[in-house]
């Protein structure tokens, strides 16, 4: 009898302990494509990886550079920064953090096959001075190297070596490594398990170096990709899920009426675009060899054939506005005076096509991604219909991100979908350097999907990369954007809204970069 009572007592005790655990379920429509922080330039991937990994520096709440794994830094000369590293930090497997890890991480991120090489364009190399001091070589007089280093998450050299992962993987190249599905960082949460396209579990890092200043009270995070909008929303309303960061905009009014939920909406830094294939030939078959998209009149026609205001009103539910610039107002380099003036005018579109010699239209390949951008499937279909009205036959194919990235990044389509928020830099140098500068198979043009080239734009961007005077640098970036916008390698659609829905029990700050920071959240 005593043994039975003792067993029941222990069972009740363990049950109470389990109930006391602050567990949270985070869902979105697609899985995090990779856990390798150098494999893919993705806001959603970086947001998740930041719960596990940390950089030498980080953004504070006001988007100022703050210490992280480095406690201090000094500019030695115009291409050298010396960092003092934080002592007493350990990786999740118990390995100590030191300069060897920084050097290995810098070598990995600057490798030509790194999927985020463009995000570290001003970083050249790293040299160990002592166990807790490193020098990082940069391009001369780089004004944005610290911005870039916020996105260079530090990995454990011993762990990489033991698992044959010293070389980076790349989603664009279709490569994977041990780091794709496994993780070992220094951050506030530890990866407990990963089942691709099903579930990932994080547990709190009880040995986190920053626990004395810990802002969160979360013990466990369960991340679940749920492709069905209806299932995801039903889970929110039933209490199964605690936060989702991609919600069908048409469902927000209904969710706002639910007393158990909080709806958070604000403008984001991301612009959604369509890219125009400006190579010598189209991927789609036609009765001619020339590429019509190389003609500026054709690109202008394709913009003016689409009623972007209606797309914003009907598909984006009037929760944002048409983008007539390549960057959002919150990005350094934005210039409201240089907005595109290509309003909806199908008659003008037909006239431009006729002037270019394509009054009978032509065929183009159009590839759209599922789940990556809000309501992209709907607005891709709308664009296809608008183009059909002016004689353009766009063959539209929908793809999951896992296959879409290769199609887009390797130029296997004529019209691609792309969203760009200029993270982690929060600076127009990001789009200028990665989307608008011509490809050099190095730091420039990594996501120049159209294969666009303008030597004047290249010169502005290169000058901005070494200009330390802030006003002059911003002017150079704005000049590059203005010229590129006039050349129209991309068709800007709209600024993507940030729409989150959370349970009332979750207290979390939503920012315009759309990054979920659960290490700063509280469960009530």
Automatic annotation (TrEMBL):
<dbReference type="GO" id="GO:0030288">
    <property type="term" value="C:outer membrane-bounded periplasmic space"/>
</dbReference>
<comment type="similarity">
    <text>Belongs to the bacterial solute-binding protein 5 family.</text>
</comment>
<dbReference type="GO" id="GO:0043190">
    <property type="term" value="C:ATP-binding cassette (ABC) transporter complex"/>
</dbReference>
<protein>
    <submittedName>
        <fullName>Peptide ABC transporter substrate-binding protein</fullName>
    </submittedName>
</protein>
<keyword id="KW-0813">Transport</keyword>
<dbReference type="GO" id="GO:1904680">
    <property type="term" value="F:peptide transmembrane transporter activity"/>
</dbReference>
<dbReference type="InterPro" id="IPR039424">
    <property type="entry name" value="SBP_5"/>
</dbReference>
<dbReference type="Pfam" id="PF00496">
    <property type="entry name" value="SBP_bac_5"/>
</dbReference>
<feature type="domain" description="Solute-binding protein family 5">
    <location>
        <begin position="65"/>
        <end position="440"/>
    </location>
</feature>
<dbReference type="GO" id="GO:0015833">
    <property type="term" value="P:peptide transport"/>
</dbReference>
<feature type="signal peptide">
    <location>
        <begin position="1"/>
        <end position="20"/>
    </location>
</feature>
<dbReference type="InterPro" id="IPR030678">
    <property type="entry name" value="Peptide/Ni-bd"/>
</dbReference>
<dbReference type="InterPro" id="IPR000914">
    <property type="entry name" value="SBP_5_dom"/>
</dbReference>
<keyword id="KW-0732">Signal</keyword>
């Amino acid at each position: 009898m005593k043994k039975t009572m003792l067993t029941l007592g222990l069972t009740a005790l363990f049950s109470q302990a389990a109930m006391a655990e602050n567990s949270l379920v985070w869902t979105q429509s697609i899985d995090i494509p990779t856990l390798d922080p150098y494999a893919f330039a993705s806001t959603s991937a970086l947001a998740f990886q930041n719960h596990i990994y940390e950089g030498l520096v980080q953004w504070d709440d006001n988007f100022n550079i703050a210490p992280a794994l480095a406690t201090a830094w000094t500019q030695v000369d115009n291409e050298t920064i010396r960092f003092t590293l934080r002592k007493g930090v350990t990786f999740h497997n118990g390995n100590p953090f030191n300069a060897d890890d920084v050097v290995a991480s810098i070598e990995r991120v600057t490798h030509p096959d790194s999927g985020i090489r463009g995000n570290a364009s001003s970083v050249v190399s790293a040299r160990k001075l002592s166990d807790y001091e490193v020098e990082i070589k940069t391009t001369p007089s780089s004004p944005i190297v610290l911005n870039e280093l916020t996105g260079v998450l530090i990995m454990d050299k011993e762990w990489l070596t033991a698992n044959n992962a010293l070389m980076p993987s790349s989603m664009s190249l279709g490569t994977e490594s041990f780091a794709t599905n496994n993780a070992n960082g220094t951050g506030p949460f530890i990866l407990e398990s990963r089942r691709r396209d099903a579930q990932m579990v994080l547990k709190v890092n009880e040995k986190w170096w920053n626990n004395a200043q810990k802002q969160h009270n979360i013990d466990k995070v369960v991340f679940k990709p749920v492709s069905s909008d209806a299932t995801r929303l039903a889970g929110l309303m039933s209490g199964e899920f605690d936060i989702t960061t991609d919600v069908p905009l048409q469902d927000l009014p209904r969710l706002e009426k639910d007393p158990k939920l909080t709806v958070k909406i604000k403008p984001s830094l991301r612009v959604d675009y369509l890219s125009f294939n400006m190579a010598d030939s189209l991927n789609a078959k036609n009765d001619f060899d020339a590429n019509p998209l190389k003609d500026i009149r054709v690109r202008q026609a394709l913009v003016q054939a689409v009623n972007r205001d209606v797309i914003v009103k009907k598909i984006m539910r009037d929760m944002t506005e048409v983008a007539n610039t390549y960057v959002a107002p919150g990005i350094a380099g934005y210039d409201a005076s240089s907005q595109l003036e290509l309003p909806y005018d199908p008659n003008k579109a037909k006239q431009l096509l006729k002037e270019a010699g394509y009054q009978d239209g032509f065929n183009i390949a159009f590839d759209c991604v599922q789940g990556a951008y809000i309501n992209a499937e709907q607005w891709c279909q709308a664009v296809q219909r608008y183009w059909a009205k002016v004689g353009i036959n766009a063959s539209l194919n929908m793809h999951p991100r896992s296959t879409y990235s290769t199609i887009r990044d390797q130029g296997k389509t004529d019209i691609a979908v792309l969203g760009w928020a200029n993270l982690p830099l929060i600076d127009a140098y990001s789009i200028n350097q990665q989307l608008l500068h011509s490809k050099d198979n190095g730091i420039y043009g990594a996501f120049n999907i159209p294969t666009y080239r303008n030597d004047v734009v290249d010169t502005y961007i290169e000058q901005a990369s070494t200009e330390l005077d802030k006003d002059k640098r911003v002017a150079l970036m704005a000049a590059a954007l203005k010229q590129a916008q006039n050349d129209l390698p991309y068709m800007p659609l709209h600024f993507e809204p940030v729409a989150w829905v959370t349970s009332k029990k979750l207290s979390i700050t939503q920012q315009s970069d759309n990054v979920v920071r659960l290490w700063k959240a509280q469960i009530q």
